[in-house]
Write a structure and sequence with these properties.
CATH architecture of one domain: Up-down Bundle
Radius of gyration: 20 Å
Structural class: mainly alpha
Helix content: 55-70%
CATH topology of one domain: Four Helix Bundle (Hemerythrin (Met), subunit A)
Largest sheet: none
Order of helices and strands: HHHHHHHH
Number of strands: 0
CATH class of one domain: Mainly Alpha
Number of helices: 8
Length: about 250
């Protein structure tokens, strides 16, 4: 089997199991917290650092939300069994980077990995993330090339894989769909908030030898949990978040 074929095969397998990647971040954090201490011995500086890290992660969630919210139905989804794309997204964030969802994922979990202020953990997470997603991207782009042919090849030749190029910006073909974002992203957002609460407690435990959570973090998590439960109930018992058909006519690639 050629290397490219092997990477595509690996990528299809990793695509189905990509939700397990955050577990690697958690495993690495256990080691990082074993040597953890507050910056210059100050708890308040650690709190400021955690807020900064949360900002990095939220920027990733916002990137995901923008990409998902402007995407046609049948694209930019969380399907795990196989690749799917009803159309080739080439506008909005997809006009400046080919894989904005993975850019968002990277920032979201990089922010988490930064909490123990361990340079080695952040570098390892970045390296593992790239190796992991390089193969998924290889499989995804092979699928897109097979389905969309020259349109994909022209778009891929112009738009960078992972580092956005803002000068290429093209206005999204569809308006922002908040309901789609809520349906697709609420679970990931709650999981991320839960990990931040866990890491905030782990930092205090590692530095001071006892577990405590600052009130703002607890309040933020309780609010996030309430929103999570509310959305679950709405999805189960109402049609308020049902999606309308969204068909976009994409400009020539």
């Amino acid at each position: 089997m050629k290397l490219t074929e092997q990477m595509e095969s690996n990528g299809r397998w990793l695509f189905r199991h990509r939700s397990h990647l955050p577990l690697m971040v958690l495993a690495g954090a256990v080691l990082a917290f074993r040597q953890f201490s507050f910056p210059w011995g100050r708890h308040d500086l650690q709190e400021l650092w955690e807020v900064f890290c949360l900002g990095v992660s939220v920027s990733g969630l916002l990137i995901r939300a923008h990409a998902v919210g402007h995407a046609p139905r049948g694209t930019s989804g969380r399907n795990r069994r196989a690749q799917a794309a009803s159309v080739l997204n080439t506008t909005g964030l997809y006009s400046i980077v080919r894989h904005p969802l993975y850019v968002g994922n990277f920032l979201a979990w990089l922010g988490v990995a930064m909490v123990p202020h361990s340079l080695s953990l952040a570098c390892v997470v970045a390296l593992v993330f790239w190796i992991y997603h390089e193969r998924i991207i290889c499989a995804e782009e092979a699928f897109l090339e097979q389905k969309f042919g020259d349109d994909f090849r022209r778009w891929a030749a112009r738009v960078p894989t992972f580092v956005p190029k803002p000068a290429l910006w093209v206005k999204p073909a569809l308006p922002f769909a908040l309901r789609k974002v809520i349906r697709q992203e609420y679970l990931g957002a709650f999981a991320l908030m839960s990990v931040f609460l866990l890491f905030e407690g782990a930092a205090d435990w590692a530095a001071e030898g006892f577990l405590r959570w600052e009130a703002p973090w607890l309040v933020a998590w309780v609010v996030a949990f309430g929103v999570f439960v509310g959305i679950r109930l709405v999805l189960k018992f109402t049609t308020l978040l049902e999606l309308e058909p969204r068909v976009a006519v994409m400009p020539p690639a």
